[in-house]
Amino acid sequence: MKKPYCTQNNGDCSTCSLVNYNRDCQNVPLWGGIREGAGRPSTGRKRQSFYITDEENEQLRKYLEELRNPAK
Ligand SMILES: [Zn+2]
What is the DSSP string of 11-66? Predict the structure, then answer.
């Protein structure tokens, strides 16, 4: 998102240094982006990354399914 006051990254504030903290380079709170979908309850889920094999990935997916849908 281009912002006229942005001094970094050619005005592309979405890549500014404070964006991780939900602020842009002028310390202005961000709207949208991370809060996209506000209004819906958060799932608390976020992308995690770690190095695993395809086989481990397969098993983790099954395990995750069980976690989310426990057998009754
Ligand atoms: Zn910026």
Answer: GBGGGSTTGGGTB-TTSPBP-SGGGTTBTBPP-----------HHHHHHHHHHHHH
